[in-house]
């Protein structure tokens, strides 16, 4: 294929008989590998009926799209596969191969229930409880939460403490966080908390300076304030890093990390598991 023949824009269809989150994440991960390519992403979710599925397939064909799908109903999977074969369309069936392999290994037939991942079961309500905990104990509102938390995040302003707390809460972890201000009193509960569940977040001064300036602009205020002063930022970070050494906690520099990457590093560093789905307890 010559450069002139190559597609200028790649169209991806996500088709699912449930919310389509799994296929959407795979699509996003794939697209991220090609920052110079233009993509169009279409979602056709909750396609549980034959008519709705066929409409989604026709839409994908019309757009000359590649298709990522998570369909669990055998009859609907066959309809989709027959359509792809007839029209010579690229498709990737995300669920069928691993589901079939588990059935082969165990001899247990799958339920073939769309959206089974999202049952309102005990695990789901634990996740809601963890998210409520993160909101209640955000920004050091109540230091008593430090002792109940699975994770305590420390950091100066704009080191992603709140987004990280909520992201980890979605993995069924109770997370509290405390903003660090050199002039502020540190609550006694901080010293009573097990250092092995504390994570100190830090950042590069120049990057933090840019983030804080942008925050001021979004508020309609001058970018250059004491909040974004580079020397003040350096002193804040020095105070935080000295504190982390005294505590003996894990330290993560978030300067070049996404929320997802930082969360993964926290889970690894503290030997925690993602319990957001059906994870079992780690064997002793």
From TrEMBL:
GO MF terms listed in the record are:
ADP binding; ATP binding; phosphotransferase activity, phosphate group as acceptor; protein serine/threonine kinase activity
**Which UniProt keywords are present, listed alphabetically?**
Kinase, Nucleotide-binding, Pyruvate, Serine/threonine-protein kinase, Transferase
Domain of life from the UniProt record? Bacteria
Entry's Pfam families?
Kinase-PPPase (PF03618)
Query: So where does ADP get bound?
Result: 155-162
Q: Which EC number(s) are documented for this chain?
A: 2.7.11.32, 2.7.4.27
Give the reactions, separated by semicolons, that this protein catalyses: N(tele)-phospho-L-histidyl/O-phospho-L-threonyl-[pyruvate, phosphate dikinase] + phosphate + H(+) = N(tele)-phospho-L-histidyl/L-threonyl-[pyruvate, phosphate dikinase] + diphosphate; N(tele)-phospho-L-histidyl/L-threonyl-[pyruvate, phosphate dikinase] + ADP = N(tele)-phospho-L-histidyl/O-phospho-L-threonyl-[pyruvate, phosphate dikinase] + AMP + H(+)
| Enzyme category, top tier | transferase
Q: Transferase: is it a keyword of this entry?
A: yes
Give the protein's biological function: Bifunctional serine/threonine kinase and phosphorylase involved in the regulation of the pyruvate, phosphate dikinase (PPDK) by catalyzing its phosphorylation/dephosphorylation.
Q: Write out the similarity annotation.
A: Belongs to the pyruvate, phosphate/water dikinase regulatory protein family. PDRP subfamily.
NCBIfam families found in the cross-reference section: PRK05339.1
What is the name attached to this protein's record? Putative pyruvate, phosphate dikinase regulatory protein
Q: Which organism is it from?
A: Enterococcus termitis
């Amino acid at each position: 294929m010559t450069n002139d023949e190559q597609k200028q824009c790649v169209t991806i269809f996500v088709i699912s008989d449930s919310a389509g989150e799994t296929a959407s994440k795979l699509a996003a991960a794939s697209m991220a590998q090609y920052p110079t390519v233009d993509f169009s992403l279409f979602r056709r979710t909750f396609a549980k009926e034959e008519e709705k599925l066929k409409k989604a397939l026709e839409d994908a064909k019309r757009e000359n799209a590649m298709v990522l799908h998570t369909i669990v109903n055998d009859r609907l999977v066959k309809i989709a596969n027959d359509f792809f074969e007839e029209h010579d369309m690229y498709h990737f069936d995300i669920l069928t191969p691993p589901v079939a392999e588990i059935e082969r290994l165990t001899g247990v037939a799958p339920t073939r229930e769309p959206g089974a991942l999202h049952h309102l079961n005990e695990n789901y309500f634990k996740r809601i409880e963890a998210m409520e905990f993160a909101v209640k104990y955000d920004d050091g509102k109540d230091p008593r939460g430090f002792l109940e938390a699975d994770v305590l995040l420390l950091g100066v302003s704009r080191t992603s403490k709140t987004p990280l707390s909520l992201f980890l809460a979605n993995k069924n972890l109770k997370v509290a966080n405390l903003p660090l201000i050199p002039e502020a009193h540190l609550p006694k509960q901080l010293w009573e908390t097990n250092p092995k569940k504390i994570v100190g977040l830090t950042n590069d001064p120049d990057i933090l300076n840019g983030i804080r300036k942008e925050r001021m602009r979004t508020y309609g205020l001058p970018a250059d304030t004491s909040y974004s002063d580079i020397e003040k930022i350096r002193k804040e970070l020095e105070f935080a890093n000295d504190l982390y050494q005294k505590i003996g906690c894990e330290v993560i520099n978030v300067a070049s990390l996404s929320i997802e990457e930082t969360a993964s590093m926290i889970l690894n560093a503290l030997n925690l598991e993602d319990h957001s789905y059906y994870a079992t307890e780690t064997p002793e």
